[in-house]
């Protein structure tokens, strides 16, 4: 073994020994720096690798989701599933590699630094101390006078003892140096060799995995070549079919003249027909024919119609055996026929005489076929013996069930006016401004983004994930409502809305509309709920106006309910006439106690901030939007009511969607009143679990205390509200965990997110489940 520092020189304590020590100590210090740097780089590499594995795992989960979505295509599903499994194996191999790297580099080298180098430093300190003591003893021995025998003996004894101790410690120090110099070579090489073997195993595993996958990928490539040939052939066939159909004569509707009572689909005949209103006035809607033009079909011994394919069919005749059909010549329109049942009659209009005769014959044939079919006639006759309550109730229930299961795009587009872009009118918009509650085409959405998030927050209706409270907000407003605010003066000013494709005109128009607010009528207030109903009615039959006004102005004649947007919904006797004017918003607001809005406040007399303040409590989102358009400060504090803000009023009003609207428009979730209570305090006191969940997600400070020194958690504990205590404690634990791990700005772990996601869904879709605390309190 090569000796770094000679033991003999150590005993002599020669200059060569001191020089060797100085060189070794400098080398060890530099070695320690290099090893520390290498360990830190290894830790950074491992952390980055783990982050890569997490991102890669999310990507693999995306492939699995795509495979599940492609379940109808066996080739795509099988291929994506197989690829995702192989990529998951590679993620596992990566994880093993990082674990072995941590053991080989980080653990081994850290142990060497912490143990062996620490022993060296301890030996060095002892050596330096005894060296200093020996030097002092030599100096003292040299300075003693010869005539002082007692001092001579004492100095001699001290020098002898110090030399003996120095030799002992110096030899230990030299031994530690030589052992360290020998061991560092083996430790470094062992660590690196283990690291390289880990890489060798990783690449071998990856090579073996993809070697097994290779034949399948080769077969798939060959299959793709065949698919490309088949696709080209299908394209040619479709082009030929397109050309053949294009050459047909479309001047008549002969394609709809045929019917089949034995059709496999059960649909005997189907097509568009005009339907005359079944109210007392028996009118046709001349303004908007699409309001009365429906897709009719004869199926399952019933005559039904749909306005849109996604809607559940509305039954006109429940049992064809109990009805008759005849031509109608006593009406002002051509090609009409009447279907008469024991309880009602329905007058329909075809597009031509041939189509009318085809429909009459199809109904008559279906009636005859229905009599021949076997079935439980008694049950059907009993069901028909009681008068029908009308199709509005069942239609509304079916629509409500459908809306709950539809996508964000379908739910938002069914709101009045949302089927086209709010600013240019382009059909089928796929983007939305969440703080304005409007739908936009892709070009207008880009212009809105350029305005800044303080004016418009743009989100995709198909690509982004929608929180339930945000989806409810979109369904409470809509293009028609917001355009009555932001385009109130557009007709008076003689300005025309830009058309699709006019980019520069769109930019100027949108900036004037939302930033400069040039078209907002600041001299008049937003329409009252009554006016809103009337404006909706004008889109339908004008004959409804007197009856509808009479119903709204005279609540004693029928029961009146109000939904969250202030639109009146009349009772059973006028339900059919009102079916076209009731807002879709009623499908999204939970039932419960609501203020009677039949008498409307005149908001135009209020300061915009006060208008926003009162409308927030009354849950009137259109009035809130109007107040913001008129310049109301979303964080305005009422000096007459403890400096409460509109957001606090929304909490007191009990509406989750109102709070979401204010937050999306810049409301400060932590602004407190004069008593030191913010929105989170008030929601906790009132036991509004859904609002507590919303405020915590929006960054509410749960550590803030009121003038009594109470924070929201202590209030919830005193009130024994288990749901709110759970939410607050989870949020606090998540906050502490993120701070301890340095995850600032991160949402938290998956468990925390899942729990809050469940509470959000419950608060928006099943709020009655969160009312347990209030119900239990009322019992006592």
Automatic annotation (TrEMBL):
Question: Annotated region Disordered: where?
Answer: 374-397, 537-566
Q: Which SUPFAM superfamilies match?
A: Ankyrin repeat, ArfGap/RecO-like zinc finger, BAR/IMD domain-like, PH domain-like
Q: How is its activity regulated?
A: GAP activity stimulated by phosphatidylinositol 4,5-bisphosphate (PIP2) and phosphatidic acid.
Tell me any Pfam family this protein matches: BAR_3
GO MF annotation, one: zinc ion binding
Q: Where is the PH domain?
A: 266-368
Can you say where the ANK repeats lie in this chain?
A: 642-674, 675-707
Main site of residence? membrane
| UniProt-listed PROSITE patterns | ANK_REP_REGION, ANK_REPEAT, ARFGAP, PH_DOMAIN
Subcellular localization, as worded in the UniProt entry: Cell membrane; Endosome membrane
Q: How does it sit in the membrane?
A: Peripheral membrane protein
Say if the entry is tagged with keyword Zinc-finger.
Answer: yes
Q: Where is the Arf-GAP domain?
A: 406-527
Coiled-coil intervals, chain numbering: 117-147
Q: Which InterPro entries match?
A: ACAP1/2/3-like, AH/BAR_dom_sf, Ankyrin_rpt, Ankyrin_rpt-contain_sf, ARFGAP/RecO, ArfGAP_dom, ArfGAP_dom_sf, BAR_dom
| Record remark on domains | PH domain binds phospholipids including phosphatidic acid, phosphatidylinositol 3-phosphate, phosphatidylinositol 3,5-bisphosphate (PIP2) and phosphatidylinositol 3,4,5-trisphosphate (PIP3). May mediate protein binding to PIP2 or PIP3 containing membranes.
What protein am I looking at? Arf-GAP with coiled-coil, ANK repeat and PH domain-containing protein
Q: Which gene encodes it?
A: ACAP2
